[in-house]
Design goal:
heterodimer, A: mainly beta, seven-stranded mixed sheet, 11 strands, 50% strand, globular, B: mainly beta, six-stranded mixed sheet, 54% strand
Chain lengths: 111, 112
């Protein structure tokens, strides 16, 4: 089945740690995105990539980093510089038309 | 002020009711208007989209866009408990779908 796979589903981070969230897609989409969702709030764009080896900052990129070495993969690293990382993280891809396909999300909690 | 404002909810209705979910926006460049449904602890999934102004119907769902008023709506007829979810409006000026601007979502509960 085609789709987007995010892992892990739940992730716990200690203070000062970097953690990496995985996002893989087999839809052959060029564009991939990372969003953050906080309770009662919509999706805020962290980073996006429209082609391999290229990515752009979104609205809330500070404290995050990404790479796009393969078309299928767009991992997100939450660095220690992100002071409030507890949130639900969503990865999406699109073929450039109106629809974005989302993964099932990773819930990150700081412990 | 946010570019997209969505009626906050939460909304609770009895089964069979007609539901109206609404968003307003300020960016006149928006051309594509989407509604996503998000079940608890899941990723959003596209429910409907509309290009420019007009209505679009799909089964029990109708999406309306009024660009002159910068107002969009999603109507759900004969609502079912399975419609209980958070509904997110989203819009974009072009076909760069993932780089849409999202509303904060309205949580709907349909009671049997």
């Amino acid at each position: 089945d085609g789709g987007i796979t995010q892992s892990p589903k739940y992730l716990f981070r200690k203070e000062g740690q970097n953690v990496t969230l995985s996002c893989e897609q087999n839809l052959n989409h060029d564009a991939m995105y990372w969003y953050r969702q906080d309770p009662g709030q919509g999706l805020r764009l962290i980073y996006y990539s429209q082609i391999v080896n290229d990515f752009q900052k979104g609205d809330i990129a500070e404290g995050y980093s990404v790479s796009r070495e393969k078309k299928e993969s767009f991992p997100l690293t939450v660095t220690s510089a992100q002071k409030n990382p507890t949130a639900f993280y969503l990865c999406a891809s699109s073929a450039g038309i109106y629809e974005a396909f989302f993964g099932q999300g990773t819930r990150l909690t700081v412990v | 002020q946010k570019e997209v404002e969505q009626d906050p909810g939460p909304l609770s209705v009895p089964e069979g009711a007609i539901v109206s979910l609404n968003c307003t926006y300020s960016n006149s460049a928006f051309q594509y208007f989407m509604w996503y449904r998000q079940y608890s602890r899941k990723g959003p999934e596209l429910l409907m989209y509309t290009y420019s102004s007009g209505n679009k119907e799909d089964g029990r769902f109708t999406a309306q866009v009024d660009k002159s008023s910068k107002y969009i709506s999603l109507f759900i007829r004969d609502s079912q408990p399975s419609d209980s979810a958070t509904y997110l409006c989203a819009m974009t000026p072009n076909t760069n779908a993932g780089k849409s601007t999202f509303g904060d979502g309205t949580t709907l509960t349909v009671k049997p």
